[in-house]
TrEMBL record:
The lineage of its organism: Bacteria, Bacillati, Bacillota, Bacilli, Bacillales. It comes from the Bacteria. This is Na/Pi-cotransporter. Pfam families: Na_Pi_cotrans. The chain crosses the membrane at residues 48-69, 76-95, 101-123, 130-152, 172-199, 211-232, 244-269, 281-306. One of its GO terms (biological process) is sodium-dependent phosphate transport. It is found in: Cell membrane. Its main location: membrane.
Length: 312
């Protein structure tokens, strides 16, 4: 039983994370060298910062990577903390693009995409090699999802697993905690969401539990940024904790309304995977757009919570 679950989970997660790395590397080679310049130059207003955070997260395929990059630029004095609030709000929306793509259920294209990507990577010119990495990365992601879904069958037969998630269905707090811890351990909210989609497609989880796990994943993704802020200046720590506080506050505010969020997503599509993707998008868009007009106030609050040493 353990082997039937652990083997597909381990291989599937490895394929998924390797695909994310390959795709991120391809995008970075295409535009990553300009990313720091974009973050430093085009963050003059909260709206500009928001779009920079959104586009950067789409290119780097990781909100944590953009937040860590932002922490580095803040520590170097290239941008001020107030400019980073809009970037953080944008990263939360940008990360939903990957989730929406994953929800399209393109597993049947996994091997062809992987083969095409490898073939392009073997070409001598730089541009097709970079594009090949991106295509192969997508192929590995879908291959990983397909592999992880193999574990759903044995899990359905497990009395222990059924009891655990039956308890989770009665306590969305347990789902929130599960999503937070698992994402903090594997450093990928997209992977957590993909696993949740796989379990939902086999009707192992309730929609409310699945959405609680996804909200927890949003909190868990802040763990990398908090670690990156250790040993940095106050402004960099403010960036990390702003990201954390915003995601925690958003998750806690939405937690009582998971049933309503599930109803809205069910109205948009019949597919459980698409419902999860749409719910995450709705959650992140609403939270980010609601907070965008108050970036100065948010920055002031975070400065009060994480003050400069000079002020203490």
């Amino acid at each position: 039983m353990i082997g039937a679950v652990l083997a597909p989970f381990t291989f599937g997660l490895s394929f998924f994370l390797l695909g994310m790395y390959a795709m991120r590397t391809g995008f970075q080679n295409l535009a990553g060298k300009r990313m720091a310049d974009w973050l430093a130059r085009f963050t003059r207003t909260p709206v500009h910062s928001f779009w920079v955070g959104l586009l950067s997260t789409f290119v780097l395929q990781s909100s944590s990577a953009v937040t860590v990059l932002t922490i580095g630029l803040t520590h170097a004095g290239m941008i001020g903390f107030a400019q980073t609030v809009g970037i953080i709000l944008g990263t939360n929306v940008g990360t939903t693009v990957t989730t929406e793509l994953i929800a399209l259920r393109l597993e049947s294209f996994a091997v062809p995409m992987l083969l095409v990507g490898v073939a392009m990577w073997l070409l001598p010119r730089r541009l097709p090699r970079c594009i090949g990495l991106v295509v192969a990365g997508f192929g590995l992601i879908f291959l990983g999802i397909d592999t992880m879904q193999v574990m759903a069958g044995p899990l359905q037969q497990s009395d222990t697993f059924r009891a655990l998630f039956l308890e989770s269905s009665h306590s969305i707090w347990l789902g929130l905690l599960t999503g937070t811890i698992f994402t903090a351990l594997i450093h990928s909210s997209s992977a957590t969401t993909a696993i949740t989609m796989g379990l939902m497609s086999h009707h192992i989880l309730s929609m409310e539990t699945a959405l609680a796990i996804v909200l927890g994943a949003n909190i868990g993704t802040c763990f990398t940024a908090v670690i990156a802020s250790f040993g940095t200046n106050a402004a960099s720590r403010q960036v990390a904790w702003c990201h954390t506080l915003f995601n925690v506050a958003g998750a806690l505010l939405f937690l009582p309304f998971l049933s309503q969020l599930a109803l809205v997503s069910a109205f948009l599509t019949d597919s459980p995977s698409m419902q999860i993707a749409h719910s995450q998008t709705i959650f992140n868009v609403i939270c980010s757009l609601a907070a965008l007009p108050f970036t100065r106030q948010i920055a002031a609050f975070v400065r009060w919570m994480v003050p400069d040493k000079k002020r203490t």
